[in-house]
Design a protein that fits this description.
The chain has 209 residues and is mainly alpha-helical. It is built from 6 helices and no strands. Helix 1 packs across helix 3. The longest helix is centred in the middle third of the chain and has 88 residues, at 67-154.
Length: 209
């Protein structure tokens, strides 16, 4: 095995010298130049890096904090922990209260809307019931009118040859009978909704036929 040009002590001494003169840690390249460019670079680097690591470990091991510093550090950590927990708790409470208020508003809106829809459904049911009753009455009136017409046409001959005044009286009696049962005399539902009525068609003049 070939003997190295410089020993570990010489390499470390050269590094210390350069560190002192430059005011910073010397690099392995600078140490190799300081030694005249001789020696294996990888060996110089490993020796110098190992020395720096041992030096740092020694400094760390030598640092001993006093008991007062430990107490202050512990107090600061506990205060920071307490403050953080308080901030988190306040934020959780604020978000919870906001969520509860929002939910209450949504529930109130839903209940109001539900009540409105129930009222509309009830009004529509009353309106439908009213229209069905009107339809039944109209059908009854139509049947009554057909029955009266048949009675007038199919009656005895002396009734058909009765005077014009008597026939007018019969028609007036039938008209009064129908008008008493007309749909518009029935009271409207509580909803007060108006049923759309189709206007009667105007009678056509005999000259326009």
């Amino acid at each position: 095995m070939r003997t190295p040009h410089y020993s570990e002590a010489e390499i470390i001494a050269a590094g210390k010298k350069l560190t002192s003169s430059h005011g910073r840690n010397a690099t392995p390249i600078e140490i190799q130049k300081e030694l005249g460019g001789k020696g294996k670079f990888s060996r110089i680097r490993d020796i110098w890096d190992g020395y720096q690591a041992d030096k740092t470990a020694g400094l760390s091991a030598e640092i001993i904090l006093p008991d007062e510093s430990h107490t202050r550090i512990l107090t600061a950590v506990l205060a920071m922990q307490s403050a953080t927990e308080g901030i988190v708790a306040d934020e959780i409470a604020r978000m919870t209260e906001q969520s509860i208020r929002h939910s209450a508003v949504l529930i109130a809106d839903f209940e109001n809307r539900e009540a409105e829809l129930k009222q509309k459904i009830q009004e529509m049911e009353e309106e439908i019931s009213y229209l069905y009753e009107c339809l039944d009455e109209l059908e009854t009136q139509s049947e009554l009118s057909v029955t009266v017409s048949k009675t007038t046409i199919e009656g005895p001959v002396h009734e058909q040859t009765s005077s014009l005044g008597e026939r007018k009286t019969d028609h007036k009696t039938v008209s009064n009978c129908i008008s008493r049962n007309q749909c518009h005399n029935r009271p409207r539902p509580i909803s007060n909704r108006k049923v759309r009525q189709v206007p009667a068609k105007p009678k056509r003049s005999p000259g326009n036929r």
